[in-house]
Amino acid sequence: MMTPDTRLIQKDKQKLDPALYVLSLSKLFKDLGTGMLAFLLPLYIVGMDSNIFSETPIVVRAGIIATVFGLSNAISQPFLGRLSDSLNRRKSFVVIGMAGFTLISFIYANTHNFDQLVLLRLLQGLTVGATVPAIVAMVTHMSTSSTRGVAIGIYSTVRGFGFGIGSIIGGIVASYYGFVTAFYICALLGLASLILISFFVSETHDGIQSKKSTSDSAQGFQFAILSIAMFMMMAGIMIIFAFLPEYETRLNTGQISLSIAVSAYVIVRVLFQTPMGLISDHIGRKRVIAMGLLLNIPIVIGLGHVDNVIQLIILRAIQGISMAAVETPVMALAVDLAGISVSSKVSSITASQAAGMALGPIMGGLLAGYISFEMPFYLCAVMLLLSLMLVLVGIKEPLNLKKE
């Protein structure tokens, strides 16, 4: 029978640390800028001079500009995650990354060569890669296993809201004031996050290492499956960025309509992120992850057969539900498994997410540019099916999930 003191301790563990809201809000402005850039750059490169890629189809160029960012982001995260763990410092990594994002966003406004833009996007991926594992670790330090799904859901909701609204803002600003003005706004948004993080977010440190319910080899196998699932999801979602110029022509639509299609996914994902985290806290991470993967399979096939922008917006909105059902419980489960080395271990998940962001667009661009428009969407569906089977067979819930 629980004593009053025990009940009080249990109640405290169900509460969220207010610092989580400060951290999430501080990063919001940079995420607005990230959403703007993800939408603007594939359209900004149309007609741009290039010494290396002069004969490359526009869908491939659009894929390249997205890929170099995601790939450098993915490669840098495991190394920087291990470094932040070894130093037991996170805030400094976030501050340096925010500063790099801000500076490069400012330089975009004065860049008119595709090759130079590719190099800048690669460098920006490295700077953003410094922030991701550090921020995930900070969110972890501000939560317990019984509130982790909700905590990650709240952080992801604020982050996703910024990204989604950023695409719409980017489309409006570019349409009425031009790309240069939009890039300056991105730089100002990055500066706002840099100031807030520097002055209003405190450093966090590792606590006591949690007990493991699985062996190191079994844990490593599950991390690999979670990484694959995140990679497949992001590849199927980010593939659309390679097709923005093609959708603009095929669907006879404009920048604002396309920005709404891009943002529909993120806005709906934002609405479902915290509920999915709460559901995973109660019924288990594995079930929610599997449902999200299954839902995304017919969606990606449909994206290759849309006839108008309304269909594109609807499919992207439903895709937001599927991603919320995967991302939040995957991150929560990874943290449950990681224990004390959160930055270094969870960075394998975030790096896979970034790799999917990187390879999805370039894969889509190459297959569409040289084989057929529909081929990349069918390939993504097969990849999602394989990852679903791996999750069903190889993922187990931690035994200590509900013991805190």
TrEMBL record:
Transmembrane segments: 20-46, 58-80, 92-110, 122-140, 152-176, 182-202, 223-244, 256-272, 293-315, 354-371, 377-395
InterPro entries, sorted: MFS, MFS_dom, MFS_trans_sf, Sugar_transporter_CS
Organism: Methanolobus mangrovi
Location of the Major facilitator superfamily (MFS) profile domain: 19-399
Transmembrane among keywords: yes
Membrane topology: Multi-pass membrane protein
Cellular component, GO annotation: plasma membrane
GO molecular function: transmembrane transporter activity
Any matching Pfam family: MFS_1
SUPFAM superfamilies: MFS general substrate transporter
The protein's name: MFS transporter
Gene3D superfamilies, per database record: MFS general substrate transporter like domains
Subcellular location(s) of the protein: Cell membrane
Keyword list, A-Z: Cell membrane, Membrane, Transmembrane, Transmembrane helix, Transport
